[in-house]
Task: inverse folding
C-alpha cells in the first residue's frame, strides 16, 4: 500500500467522510467514530432455528389451502404460482395523458407477480439448504426470468426475497417473489443509466472495473468461487450489505451454463450461512438480482449482480434504521465497509445450528 493509500485508509477508518456510489450516482456518508455510541432504542426479537417442518396453518406448505382459497399441490421441490394478491395485473387499463396534469402525472402499469417456494420443508432457509437443493431454485429463477421477460410488454423481471419478519416477510416458509413490470423500476433504471454512461465514456463495463478494483484491493471481499464474488461494496449503505458479482461479463441468468448455476447456488449458501453465523440468528435481509432489461435489447452495458440488504447493525436485536438524515439528506452508515467485510470473511461456512 502506497503512502497516499495509507493516508486514505487512516482517514476513512477514523473520521467522517463520504463515498461515491457509481452504480446509482449518489453519495453515502460514513461516520466510523459513531460505532461506540450507546443504544437505548428499539431492541427486536431474535429468530432462532425452526424445528417445524410442516405447518398446517401455513399457506405455502404442500397440500395446504392458500389465503386466496386455492390449494397447493404436494410439491417435493420448487413450486411456483401466481400471487393470489398480486401488486400488478396483466390487464390494467391505460390512463389517458389528457386526463392528467403535467405535474400530477399517472400511468397505467401492467405486469404479473409470482411466488416461488424454495422447498417443501417449512423450517429451512437458503442458509440451511444444501447446494443441491438450492440449484433447482436457481434453475427456476432462470426459467421464470426468461418466460416472463419474453412476454410482450414486459420490460423488467425482478426476483427478490424478503427474509425474516424484520424485513416484512409475512410468512417464514422459504420462498421469494418475482415481479414482472411493464417499465423499468427506479433502482434498476438508475443502474442502467450509470452503466450505460460508463460504457459510452470509457468503452468498458462499470461493474467489471469495480470487480477488478475490489480484487486488486482485497479489503472488502467476503468469499468467492470460480464464477462469483461476494463483497461489501466500497459505497455500502446497510451495515453488512453485500454485492454479488459474476466474474464474467454476463447480463442475465439465461447466459449461465450448468457450472455457473451451481456456483450461484454455492455462493448463496456461503453468504447466507455467514449471515446466520454472524449473530447466531436467522439473519434477516432483502436480497434480489438485477439483470438486463427484458425489452429485447442486447444491453452490453449490463453486468449481472445481486444485492443483499440486511438491517442488523451490532447484534441480533439491534438494527439500522433509515430515518432522519438518511431520508432527508443522504444514506449514512457507522461501521465501515472494510470492517463489515472483515467480520463476515472470518466467519465459518458451517451453519452454527449444525
Result:
Amino acid at each position: 500500500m502506497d503512502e497516499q493509500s495509507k493516508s486514505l485508509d487512516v482517514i476513512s477508518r477514523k473520521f467522517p467522510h463520504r463515498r461515491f456510489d457509481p452504480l446509482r450516482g449518489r453519495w453515502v456518508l460514513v461516520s466510523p467514530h459513531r460505532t461506540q455510541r450507546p443504544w437505548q432504542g428499539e431492541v427486536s426479537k431474535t429468530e432462532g432455528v425452526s424445528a417445524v417442518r410442516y405447518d398446517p396453518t401455513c399457506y405455502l406448505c404442500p397440500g395446504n389451502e392458500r389465503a386466496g382459497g386455492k390449494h397447493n399441490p404436494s410439491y417435493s421441490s420448487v413450486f411456483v404460482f401466481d400471487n393470489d394478491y398480486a401488486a400488478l395485473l396483466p390487464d390494467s387499463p391505460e390512463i389517458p395523458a389528457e386526463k392528467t396534469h403535467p405535474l400530477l402525472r399517472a400511468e397505467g402499469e401492467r405486469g404479473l407477480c409470482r411466488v416461488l417456494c424454495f422447498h417443501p420443508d417449512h423450517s429451512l432457509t437458503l442458509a440451511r439448504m444444501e447446494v443441491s437443493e438450492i440449484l433447482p431454485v436457481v434453475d427456476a429463477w432462470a426459467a421464470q426470468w426468461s418466460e416472463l421477460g419474453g412476454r410482450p410488454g414486459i420490460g423488467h423481471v425482478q426476483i427478490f426475497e424478503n427474509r425474516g419478519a424484520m424485513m416484512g416477510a409475512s410468512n417464514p416458509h422459504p420462498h421469494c417473489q418475482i415481479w414482472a413490470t411493464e417499465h423499468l423500476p427506479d433502482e434498476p433504471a438508475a443502474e442502467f443509466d450509470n452503466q450505460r454512461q460508463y460504457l459510452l465514456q470509457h468503452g468498458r463495463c462499470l461493474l467489471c472495473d469495480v470487480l477488478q478494483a475490489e480484487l486488486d484491493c482485497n479489503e472488502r471481499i467476503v468469499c468467492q468461487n470460480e464464477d462469483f464474488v461476494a463483497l461489501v461494496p466500497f459505497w455500502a449503505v446497510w451495515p453488512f450489505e453485500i454485492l454479488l458479482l459474476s466474474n464474467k461479463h454476463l447480463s442475465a441468468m439465461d447466459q449461465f451454463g450448468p457450472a455457473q448455476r451451481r456456483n450461484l447456488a454455492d455462493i448463496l449458501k456461503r453468504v447466507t450461512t455467514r449471515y446466520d453465523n454472524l449473530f447466531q440468528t436467522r439473519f434477516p435481509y432483502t436480497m434480489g438480482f438485477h439483470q438486463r432489461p427484458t425489452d429485447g435489447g442486447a444491453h452490453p452495458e449490463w453486468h449481472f449482480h445481486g444485492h443483499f440488504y440486511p438491517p442488523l447493525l451490532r447484534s441480533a436485536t439491534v438494527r439500522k434504521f433509515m430515518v432522519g438524515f438518511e431520508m432527508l439528506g443522504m444514506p449514512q452508515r457507522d461501521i465501515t465497509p472494510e470492517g463489515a467485510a472483515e467480520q463476515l470473511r472470518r466467519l465459518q461456512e458451517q451453519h452454527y445450528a449444525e
Observations:
- The chain has two domains: 3-45+186-345, 79-181.
- The CA atoms of residues 157 and 180 lie 4 Å apart.
- The two ends are 40 Å apart (CA to CA).
